TrEMBL record, chains A, B:
Keywords: Amino-acid biosynthesis, Aromatic amino acid biosynthesis, Lyase, Phenylalanine biosynthesis. The lineage of its organism: Bacteria, Bacillati, Bacillota, Bacilli, Lactobacillales. InterPro entries: ACT-like_dom_sf (IPR045865), ACT_dom (IPR002912), Preph_deHydtase (IPR001086), Preph_deHydtase_CS (IPR018528). The keyword Transferase does not apply. This is Prephenate dehydratase. Pathway: Amino-acid biosynthesis; L-phenylalanine biosynthesis; phenylpyruvate from prephenate: step 1/1. It catalyses: prephenate + H(+) = 3-phenylpyruvate + CO2 + H2O. It comes from Streptococcus panodentis. The gene is pheA.
């Protein structure tokens, strides 16, 4: 079986794909949209994409594509703890330049400033790209802030472990596909994600939409507005609901329809957690 | 009077600052956080920062800083139509490379592909940076996708006008300060923006928070969740309310407090619109 992910090798997406599909062939793509298009074109059986980070928020590229351009379904969610490592070709050498993704630099800056005050920072497109760049220049005094799996992938040494500033850092990934995959990861619960589009002519439309869930006691675990890209102040709403009360949710959907509120289901899925090391 | 904005010169922020404060001295800063810090440090009397774009959504750097790290107030909002121009040193020359911000490239790609199929794209940190780069290399076959004001600022020619793919593209800017500024721009209305933090132990807390506004007939023009940066699934909520019913809003705030919902007011402000050319 083939599984697409956001490359290059050694990225957090790669790690999630490895944990979820340890027996299968993993195929890297250059950006999130290409990972999803690969699934639509039938090039892969599943696609693994990031959806939300606990510090940065939603991954708009993923959610906007699913809303505007696609009918793909999320069939599982995998939560990956984000721990950043300082990686270099050799231990004990001075570090002149530190490469990483802007968010990982933000998380690791405090540590680097304290221990390598003369190091300069340079942005890369991803943490795995930074690790690859460091490995390709073994003669330079370079280091990367990147996941542990990137050290294994590019033969780098861990200079310092878990250097991120915030302890609580997690990313949600979705597995997109047709069939529920059998994952050998600890399961946490069951959720459903949908996008609501509200009619212009319904006063208090968002409040009414939320009411259909609230009075039935259905928990919303997330709500977020995203621009419809039509005019300033026009949004669609992404909501996550607890899937424990599936029958009640079906009634809520009927009520939404009768109010003139349209909804698009992004998926009903089990939530899995990759254990912290 | 001194006014800080997101530089360099020729950016949309610069244009907004010029329209709002035509008589004053404008000071560019390198990023949004620095624009806000300049105001806090007393280096400028007002700061102009982007808040939301109708296609891309909220500017998280602005809203997260105002929520987590600052007590600055928005005292006016200015809506700027976003129109992108193709700029070069000379008209009628071939174009080999087109520079711009990723979002402006996304908006202009269709036009460039059709008219300059051999041109390559290269990302810059901002549209104004792209224009400056083109002006600095007059011997190269370079072009920039940038606002009209960047053409004036860097002495570039407009090769093609309004090349953006989507017609409806606006950005909201906030003027941060202590006093309401007198702007000679057309006024559109009056709004208030606040951030709600919900207590853990209140079931249906978001629904209850929205109820305090809904049953009083107070219109919410926007709602958005942003991560609290503590754990996955914990959010604060940014809401915009119509400021027409100010007394009613004060009662709603009292009710929020009695429910254990905390709120932080980002500002009560008039909304101004820069006319389309």
């Amino acid at each position: 079986m083939l599984v697409g992910y956001l490359g290059p090798k050694g990225s957090f997406s790669h790690h999630v794909a490895q944990k979820a599909f340890p027996q299968d062939d993993l195929v890297p793509y250059q950006n999130i949209t290409e990972v999803m298009k690969a699934y639509e074109a039938g090039q892969v059986d599943y696609s693994v994409v990031p959806v939300e980070n606990s510090i940065e928020g939603s991954v708009h590229e993923t959610l906007d594509y699913l809303f505007h351009q696609s009918e793909i379904q999320a069939v599982a969610e995998v939560i990956q703890p984000i721990k950043q490592q300082l990686l270099a070709v050799e231990l004990g050498r001075p570090i002149e330049k530190v490469f990483s993704h802007p968010q990982a630099i933000a998380q690791g800056k405090k540590y680097i400033r304290r221990h390598f005050p003369h190091a300069q920072f340079e942005m890369t497109a991803s943490t795995a790209n930074a690790a690859r760049l460091v490995a390709e220049h073994p003669d330079r005094q370079y280091a990367a802030i990147a996941p542990h799996s990137a050290a294994d992938e590019y033969g780098l040494q861990v200079v310092a472990r878990d250097i991120q500033e915030m302890e609580e850092n997690y990313t949600r990934f979705w597995i997109l596909g047709h069939h529920l995959p059998q994952l050998s990861l600890p399961q946490q619960g069951e959720k459903q994600t949908l996008a609501l589009t509200l009619p212009d002519n319904l006063p208090g439309a968002l409040y009414k939409a939320l009411s259909t869930f609230a009075w039935r006691g259905i928990d919303l675990t997330k709500i977020e507005s995203r621009p419809l890209k039509t005019a300033l102040g026009e949004y669609f709403f992404i909501i996550d609901i607890d899937n424990g009360q599936k029958n009640l949710a079906d009634f809520a959907f009927q009520e939404l329809t009768s109010l003139g509120i349209t909804y698009k289901i992004f998926g009903s899925y089990n939530v899995f957690q990759i254990p912290e090391k």
